[in-house]
Amino acid sequence: MLIEKERTGAYVLEQRYPLPLSSAMPNVWELWRRAKTLEWDPQTDIPWEDLHPERYSAEQRLAAQMYWSRRTWGEYGAISESPALLLRFCLERQLPDLQFFFTMRTMEEGRHAEASWLMAERLGRYFPQPQNPPTAGAVGTHGVRRMAFDPETSLEGIFASLVCAAEEILIDVFKATVHKATNPAVRRLMELILRDEVRHIAFGWQCLDAWAPSFTPETVRNIEAAVTTMIENVEFRGYRNLWLAIEGGSATPAEIDADRISCEAGLGGNTPEDEMQVFPDFLRKIRKRMAPWGVSLPMFDHPRLGKV
Amino acid sequence: MSETREHAARLLRAYQAQEKRFVERRFPLEFVPEVPALRELYSQSKGLRWNPETDIAWDRFDPSRYEKTTREAACRTWSRRAWSVYPGLTESTALLIRFCLESGSLGMDAKLFLSFRPAEEAKHLEVCHMLAERLGGYEPDPGEPGLARISNHPFGQAALDGDLPVEAFVAALGALDDQLDLNLYVSHLQQAKDEVVRAALRLIAVDRARHVAFAWAFLGSRVPALDARGRAAVIAAVSDLLTNVVLVGYRNTWLLPEKSREPWLAAEAETARHGLGASTPTQERGVLRATIAQVRERFAAWTLDLPRVEHAELGAI
Questions:
Q1: What is the pLDDT of residues A13-60, one digit of tens each?
Q2: Of A12, A86, A104, the CB nearest to B93
Q3: Which of A192, A203, A199 is nearest to A40 (CA)?
Q4: Residues of B with Cβ-Cβ distance to A125 under 8 angstroms
């Protein structure tokens, strides 16, 4: 059974040795070290007693439930998909720093998923799926697992699209709106997620900066294509925020408006005005940040954001 | 393309092919606890977190108390232990992905638990590495083809193999192999005299006890509902792992083919003699027999009969 498949070559053996374990990227190793000192528990480190959902209107509670449910689905993607990157690091025998750090990242994403689910539950209800199933395509996957297992897809492209684009915009919006979360439990949760995500993003940029001197023209094209795909096919399909979905999909008006209503109630989320401000700034920032690598991102047309 | 890159591409393609055989149904995505015992183990993982750098009193570890030969031996023992911890990074990650691929509506307790396990394995790996470094320098390569081969199995791919029921994988790797591994750690802890080594072994053993409890609790929630084919797969996987992996020295150096045992066996004997984190072959033999008996008895509670195995040195087990 197990061994038969090993003997017949149905399972491919890793070339495991030599197995270096010493740090070779001090900046990334430092992120692993920090992650170990900053662990937290969604059950005990959020002031749930200060949530008081009864103080909000039914409309506000519903919107916040929807917002935190969708966040849960998004965070789950980081349990279901991104861990494939850790496998890739091990199979490709990438530096130990990457492997060690990414184990903590998987753990932290699990924590974020649990915390977001708890928030929806404690606000009254977690929604286990979008109101109309077709929306599942937009909010269901960013496709990182498939990319991670594909040897033709460069690691640099995956890092640039997942970490430096998808996670970066998520955190830019969090940073820009955390002050609007007047509810103490929601605010604390956002701060804790933000603290972890800052490390995740730093990891991506540090790796790409370190690898940049060896980028070939093909690597640069891979990065450009991967980031463009992430913006056009994931962000602009409403993976993070349904208001951004160009075609609208089959999301209901209540789902699309949930972020705004929840944000205005101080329960997390953001408004279209926030997106109008943060998204163009984010694109400007990553364009500038990637330019020294020779990466040139195109301008994107969006019906509500304009040409960004 | 270099040979290493080419091989890595082959490995990735193998995982890619396995992943493509699943059709992930992410929604409905349920988070409510299904198996409270598993959710409790996840809660314990969060509550019992520790840091290899700060929760072990490294400043009290004084390798100069030991002879050079003892330090070298212990260094070798802890290096070999690191090699045996390392596969946990890929195996537990692949198992997490498998659960996610199988269903969004089932198994969240297991997924949350498994989202923590790779980091716990990484912490154990770091401890082994730190000890080996302090004892003289971690050795990254067995340098002996037999040991290198026997300590390297593609169990990560097995975790993602749709033909292998997930219960069979957990029974073989969790209920048998993790259980043996835990029992060996407990034995090493009982023999260890150095306080820093004892602290390290205790911290690792506490995590590993949770990993084993996960396997038994998971099996308890699934095995009673398995059909005959699923039950046969469980027994076949466990028997296979016992015969072709455990009994050829995956965890126990004294079971390796004779030409592959040294210098590891002598190193473990010296490490055990000085209480630096190992057991003697006699002690390990007792642990192995007790573990197999324990596994067999627990399987019997589900009327799963683990067949006896013949071994050249150990006789009928």
A1: 999 999 999 999 999 999 999 999 999 999 999 999 999 999 999 999
A2: A86
A3: A192
A4: none
Query: How confident is residue A224, by pLDDT bands cut at 50, 70 and 90?
Result: very high
CATH of the domain at A108: 1.20.1260.10
Q: What range defines the domain where residue B20 resides?
A: 3-316
Q: Do B305 and B299 meet the contact criterion of CB atoms below 8 Å apart?
A: yes
Q: For A191-222, what is each residue's pLDDT tens digit?
A: 999 999 999 999 999 999 999 999 999 999 99
Chain mean pLDDT for chain A:
92
**Distance separating alpha carbons of residues B262 and B254, to the nearest angstrom:** 9
Expressed as residue numbers, the domain containing A287 is 56-307
Contact assessment for residue A25 and residue A219, using Cβ atoms and an 8 Å cutoff? no
- pLDDT at A141 (0 to 100): 61
Does any domain span residue A125? yes
Query: Rounded to 5 degrees, what angle do the CA atoms B159, B165, B166 make?
Result: 50
Answer yes or no: is pLDDT of A248 > 60: no
Please tell me the distance in Å from A269's CA to the nearest CA on chain B.
21
- CB-based contact, A134 to chain B, within 8 Å: no
pLDDT at A283 over 80: yes
Whether A88 contacts chain B with CB within 8 A: yes
* Owner of token pair 């490995």: B11
Angstrom distance (rounded) from CA B144 to CA B259 = 9
Contact A15 B7 (CB under 8 A): yes
Q: A302: alpha, beta or left, given left = phi > 0 and alpha = psi -120 to 50? A: beta
Q: Could you tell me the CATH number of the domain that includes residue B196? A: 1.10.620.20
pLDDT band at A244 (very low <50, low <70, confident <90, very high): confident
Kindly report the pTM of this predicted structure: 0.96
Alpha-carbon distance A16 to nearest alpha carbon in chain B (angstroms): 7
Q: Which residue has the tokens 């494939």?
A: A84
Residue A301 pairs with which residues in a beta bridge?
A: A307
- Nearest by CB to B4, from A11, A15, A110: name it: A15
Query: How many domains is chain B built from?
Result: 1
- Cross-chain residue pair A22–B164, CB shorter than 8 Å: no
In a domain, A133, yes or no: yes
How far is Cα B228 from Cα B225, in angstroms, rounded to an integer?
10
A210 within a domain of the structure (yes/no): yes
Q: How far apart are CA B196 and CA B60, in angstroms?
A: 7
Binary contact (B15, A149; C-beta < 8 A): yes
The tally of domains found in chain A comes to 1
Domain for residue A39, yes or no?
A: no
**Partner B, chain A 53-72, Cβ-Cβ below 8 Å:** 72
Largest CA distance in chain A: 64
Mean pLDDT of chain B: 96
Chain A residues within an 8 Å CB radius of B151: 16
What per-residue confidence (pLDDT) applies to A296? Answer: 97
Of A88, A91, A107, the CB nearest to B116: A107
If pLDDT is split at 50, 70 and 90, which confidence band does B1 have?
Answer: low
